[in-house]
């Protein structure tokens, strides 16, 4: 019965794909989540714990968990890892000082057993800020080309205007429907 329901949900496109949005505090995670949802920048407060929203793209349902990124909360990110299909890693491209911390968090995450099958989408956010790092600089610093065991993609974006976001939702949609 369970299998039948799962099959029917697949046919009607109602299967839910779990997405976790991670990154250091102030990177723009919550702003991105609400851009996906409303196509507007909303006023955000630092996230304590998590926010969860459902985003539907061409009948593909994503359950997106936006998880607080403050240092004290990072050790509990793994509580959210089970059944994750997509990791969205958000980076504040103007925050050069903390890119090393992001790099460490990225590789810790990729090594985690529960995320073995997850695809990784990296948003180089805040591209509107003067002198922010380019996606090429960030890719190089994070050694993205060395990641062979997860599908990944990096995209420059500005969460305030939404620039760069819709195309990547499409990428996720096509990855999800290929699963
Ligand atoms: P977080 O959820 O990762 O902690 P938030 O980050 O979404 O709360 O955003 C942190 C701050 O960065 C917010 O500013 C938000 O408006 C700003 N921000 C998010 N995305 C962008 C962007 O693309 N460009 C610029 N310039 N700012 C952005 P405040 O002032 O409310 O703290
Ligand atoms: Mg937040």
TrEMBL record:
The keyword GTP-binding applies. Gene3D superfamilies: P-loop containing nucleotide triphosphate hydrolases. One of its GO terms (biological process) is protein localization to Golgi membrane. InterPro entries: P-loop_NTPase, Small_GTP-bd, Small_GTPase_ARF, Small_GTPase_ARF/SAR. GTP binds at residues 23-30, 69, 125-128. GO terms for molecular function: GTP binding; GTPase activity; metal ion binding. Coiled coil: none annotated. Mg(2+) binds at residues 30, 47. It comes from the Eukaryota. Belongs to the small GTPase superfamily. Arf family. This is ADP-ribosylation factor-like protein 5C isoform X3.
């Amino acid at each position: 019965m369970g299998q039948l329901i799962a099959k029917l949900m697949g046919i009607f496109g109602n299967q839910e794909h779990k997405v976790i949005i991670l990154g250091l505090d102030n990177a723009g995670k919550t702003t991105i989540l609400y851009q996906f949802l409303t196509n507007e920048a909303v006023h955000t407060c630092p996230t304590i714990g998590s926010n969860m929203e459902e985003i539907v793209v061409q009948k593909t349902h994503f359950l997106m968990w936006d998880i607080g990124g403050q240092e004290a909360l990072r050790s509990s990110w793994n509580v959210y890892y089970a059944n994750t299909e997509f990791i969205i890693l958000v980076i504040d491209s103007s925050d050069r000082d903390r890119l090393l911390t992001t790099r460490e968090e990225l590789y810790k995450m990729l090594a985690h057993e529960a995320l073995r099958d997850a695809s990784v989408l990296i948003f180089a956010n805040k591209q509107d800020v003067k002198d922010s790092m380019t996606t090429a600089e960030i890719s190089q610093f994070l050694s993205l080309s060395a990641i062979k065991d997860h599908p990944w993609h990096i995209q420059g974006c500005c969460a305030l205007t939404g620039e760069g976001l819709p195309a990547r939702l499409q990428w996720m949609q096509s990855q999800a429907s290929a699963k």
